[in-house]
Structures are given as structure tokens and as C-alpha cells.
Design goal:
single chain; 208 residues; mainly alpha; 6 helices; 73% helix
Length: 208
């Protein structure tokens, strides 16, 4: 009779929360894989954009006669490729729109007939990167939302185990008998405790 009682108590206390935890973990794993795929696509477009920016900068510099110093060039590119390519890949397309505007706005006489083509190339890469960034942002939000209840569900499992243990004690079981059903987990030594890590300023890998 006691075996049946134990099974009924276990199902009542543990089944709902464990089912919720399992469902969340399955959804989280699926969302994590999709996020990785979309982030990989975004980084591929980001790399293409970086290469295009570098190529356009080189072509403009050559068109100007490869000057050692040129204020017209600096007004377009600022500090160079790193200024446009080292930030958040999901936001780089917005910067690239500004870069295209800078190119079109230059009054350097040697750039006149080529400005539009250079600006259009930047905008084309920016559009592709923006298109990849939108689903990547949505996917990251979904992954974040699924991560939130993981700690809550883990805590709920612990609470359910404590209550299940109390139920078993109320059935008249001894502590050793209860531990045969709910083993104690070994305590983690202080030296192995996880250390706090300052989170990165952005969730995505920086542009190359």
C-alpha cells in the first residue's frame, strides 16, 4: 500500500513541475539552435559588409591620388574602417546608411563621377545586413524570454522535492528510507563555486 502512496504523492508533487521544466528545456534548445543559425547568417552578411567598406575606402583613397593626409577623405571615413565595422552587427546597417550619405556629400573633385556607385554598393550591403539582423533580433528576444523561467522552474523543482520529502515523512518513513527515494546531492566546495562574471555590453559577437 505504501508503494502506491509514494507513487501517487510523487506524481502529484513532481509531475506538473517536471513536465513544465522539460517543455521549457525542449523549447529553449530549439530556440538556441535557431538563434545560432540566424546569428551565423548575420555574421556572414556583416563580414561581406566589412569587406565592401574596406574596398570602397581603398578605391576612394586611390581616386584621390593616395594622399598622406586628406581632410576630404577623413570627413567621409572618420577614423577608418574600424569606426564603421567594430560595433554591434545588428546595428551596423544604420551606420552604413550614414557612410553612404557621407560619400554622396563629398565635394572632392576626383570623386564626383564615382560617388553614387560607391554609395550604392554600401547601401546594397547594408540592406542585406539589415534583412539578416531583423530575424536575429527576434530570435534573440525569444531565447531570452525562454531563459527567464529556467531558474524559476529549477527553484520550483527544489520546492516540490522538499514537499515530497515531507509527504514521505508523514507516511512514517525514516530519513534513510526517504534518502533512498530522494538522494542528497553532494555540496559543492567553496573553491568550486561559480564566480560572478560581468556581462558583455552586447549579446552578439562583435563585427570583424
Amino acid at each position: 500500500a505504501r508503494g502506491g502512496d509514494v507513487k501517487a504523492l510523487a506524481e502529484a508533487r513532481l509531475t506538473p513541475v517536471l513536465a513544465a521544466l522539460d517543455d521549457n528545456e525542449v523549447a529553449f534548445a530549439k530556440a538556441r539552435d535557431e538563434d545560432a543559425r540566424l546569428h551565423s547568417e548575420l555574421m556572414a552578411r556583416d563580414n561581406e559588409s566589412d569587406l565592401e567598406i574596406g574596398a570602397v575606402f581603398d578605391e576612394m583613397w586611390n581616386a584621390m591620388g593616395r594622399p598622406s593626409q586628406a581632410i576630404d577623405y577623413q570627413m567621409i571615413v572618420s577614423g577608418g574602417k574600424k569606426d564603421w565595422c567594430s560595433g554591434d552587427p545588428a546595428k551596423q546597417a544604420l551606420l552604413m546608411a550614414v557612410l553612404a550619405k557621407n560619400i554622396r556629400g563629398s565635394n572632392h573633385p576626383r570623386l564626383g563621377d564615382k560617388k553614387e556607385a560607391w554609395a550604392a554598393r554600401i547601401e546594397q550591403r547594408a540592406a542585406a545586413q539589415a534583412e539578416a539582423a531583423r530575424p536575429a533580433d527576434v530570435s534573440y528576444a525569444q531565447l531570452t524570454a525562454l531563459r527567464m523561467p529556467r531558474r524559476t522552474l529549477a527553484d520550483a523543482v527544489q520546492v516540490a522535492l522538499v514537499r515530497f520529502k515531507r509527504d514521505l515523512m508523514n507516511l512514517g518513513m525514516t530519513e534513510p528510507q526517504v534518502h533512498e527515494i530522494i538522494p542528497d546531492y553532494p555540496k559543492c566546495p567553496a573553491s568550486a563555486a561559480p564566480q560572478a562574471v560581468k556581462p558583455a555590453s552586447t549579446p552578439s559577437t562583435p563585427a570583424g
